[in-house]
Amino acid sequence: MLIREAAAGDWPRIWPFWHRIVAARETYAWDPDTSEEAARALWTGPGKRVYVAEDDTGAVVASAYVTANYGGPAARVANAGFMVDPDHGGRGIGRALAKHVLAAAKADGYRSMVFNAVVETNPAVGLWTSLGFTVLGTVPDAYEHARHGPVGLHIMYRAL
Ligand SMILES: CC(C)(COP(=O)(O)OP(=O)(O)OC[C@H]1O[C@@H](n2cnc3c(N)ncnc32)[C@H](O)[C@@H]1OP(=O)(O)O)[C@@H](O)C(=O)NCCC(=O)NCCS
Fold first, then answer.
1. Does the beta carbon of 93 sit less than 6 angstroms from any atom of ligand 1?
2. For burial by CB atoms within 10 Å, which of 27, 77, 116, 121 has the most?
3. What pTM, to 2 d.p., does this model score?
């Protein structure tokens, strides 16, 4: 697998799984009906450093972004998002991408990373915890999960 910074031509390869993941209403606090144009701005807009993972055939199977979570004097706290194509999940791609992105964020000068809204039922919580993130707090019943109904949103943190 190759992890590299995204190029402009990668977006059409990210969008199909981006849409599938957000439309599922299980993991991201974005409108399940987000248009492709709005999705592109959310994932690749100004200030975002975007990564993709390619499998052995050159197919884009995952993407991540990193950006500053706050501004001004707090701009060295990063935020990031991760998506692995569900057809390629559970094979270690997410963990490899996360490790790469954490190292890259540190190299870019970020001191820590914060996830603002991790759905508490998301198996990703186990991945983030295993990578050193802790739950700072939980907003109760904040997320209308497609299958579980109202569930909490964790704020997660890790020093880099
Ligand atoms: C979360 C996500 C990025 C993980 O990517 P992945 O390639 O499927 O994950 P990996 O195969 O690298 O697994 C890493 C760990 O995640 C956990 N995990 C991932 N999917 C899981 C599942 N369906 N059930 C249980 N645990 C799971 C396991 O703890 C696993 O640990 P291990 O490495 O010890 O086996 C991916 O499932 C995804 O894109 N989900 C939808 C979007 C999302 O939730 N993004 C994160 C928002 S906070």
1. yes
2. 27
3. 0.97
